[in-house]
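Data availability (excerpt). The following record was deposited with the supplementary files.
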Amino acid sequence: MDKHIVVPGDFLSDDVKKAGDGTYVSEGKVYSNLYGLASEKEKIRVVSLSGKYIPQGGDLIVGTVSEITFSNWIMDIKSPYEGLLNVSEYPRRIDSSDMVKHLDVGSSVLVMVKNVSRSMKVELTMRNNRLKPITSGSIVLVSAVKVPRMIGRNGSMISMLKKETNCNIVVGQNGVIWITGKDRDIDKAIEAIQIIENEAHIDGLTDRISGFLKGNVEKELETAKPEVSEILDELLD
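Predicted structure:
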């Protein structure tokens, strides 16, 4: 298959074993789930050409409550489609009348995409120990198509960011990143994330980010040296 542009719903193959990233299977056929560039090696995959997040089952994302109905929290998930978190998918049993006490409009939540119907009804869940309301830290928005670069091959980039900044960083597939840690460490992580987003297309990015993070550490040590020297002088006096 030569690379070519496809839109959601475009037929790609009769062989369901070839279904890869950015595709879905329906009635024994493979279709595109994205507006993007389709290509085939061992599997058919579609790489998004737009910055909009297209939800898929199993995605870990950050959503923000935009509306509350009788039994659902309706969430902005940074997508053309809204997410629905039913009260039954909350971590513990609560009455519909108490929903606002647990998640109000404006609340941000770490959730998972449970299911996406053919009509793009996006069902969310919080029934997992990792999933919870976000009550601390900072949130950073990046283009959803840059998420794979944020994570890196086998998680290499995100692992380095966590280690060098001493922050806990959760990258949502929808391009919403949740960072917790000390304020100065969070600022450093945000700056690194902005560099990654702006330079995601350039080779050698991991080495540049590593140098940036280590350079910051060295600068902080240099800044601290006069203070250490002053303390020693006082002790010697």
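Summary of structural features: The chain has three domains: 4-48, 60-133, 138-215.
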